[in-house]
Design a protein that fits this description.
Two copies of one chain form a homodimer. Chain A is built from three helices and nine strands; from the N terminus they run ββββββαβββαα.
Chain lengths: 144, 144
């Protein structure tokens, strides 16, 4: 089970480029449930996510490069590319996604929680924009 | 983790049609790792199986009918259809697959074990043909 909040970002924090960064490419085979392929640096995976916005079941399964390239030919619409910065914030790690290509200059931050209680207690940093967790149009699979 | 043996069947046991039977349709999005979609009566699922013959990681994830129909358009090669009979055998349940369409009259029996020790102790019934567990050509994803 995954409990995750998502925020729009309008202004990047000054030091964001100093944090660890991964290059992501991803595409969708199905929107609901989500069946996604992703390249994360030199790692490849297939992800399944059940229906839901704040809480959902998620499975991540490894793919070979060859399997990824094969499945890439089957995605709906376009591939998404983005840079993901991992920014420590108290006990959490903020995932800051900076989109490239057709979706630039879109930016999101995501924070994952171990429980709904943690989620309720969470105080977002001041550079976070609107909480769009419950706005389906901002889900990656609806952006393509 | 799944531990499973597979046997060719040449002659069906006399009473096979009296056992519970499910109608299966399945197709493959990827061969290695296996990414499979399957309709099992009115249930739909996505399955991921890691590399391997006797032992492999397996994840089964529910699909809606709509998601199944969508993913059906992405399979490699043809769909497989078969009837699966569930035949009790001591503490085990034999899955007897009787293929239809282009793959008829092919027939397999599969037995799943909780441990490698169970697998070693297993004595197959006399109507089982050759053990083809380690023959990759008999994997469903190589039949298409």
């Amino acid at each position: 089970m995954e409990i995750e909040r998502k925020y729009l970002i309008h202004t990047l924090p000054e030091n964001y480029a100093s944090f660890p960064c991964r290059q992501l490419e991803q595409g969708y085979l199905c929107k609901e449930p989500v069946v996604r392929i992703r390249q994360d640096n030199d790692m490849y995976e297939l992800t399944y996510k059940s229906k839901g916005l704040l809480v959902r079941e998620e499975y991540n399964m490894p793919l070979t490069k060859e399997a990824y390239e094969h499945l890439k030919g089957k995605v709906d619409g376009k591939l998404i590319t983005k840079k993901r910065y991992l920014i420590p914030y108290g006990e959490y790690t903020i995932e800051l996604d900076v989109f490239e290509g057709a979706l630039a200059p879109l930016k999101f931050a995501e924070v994952e929680f171990a429980s709904l209680e943690e989620d309720e207690r969470f105080v977002a940093p001041d550079w976070f924009g609107e909480d769009v967790t419950f706005e389906a149009k901002y889900k990656n699979n609806n952006l393509i």
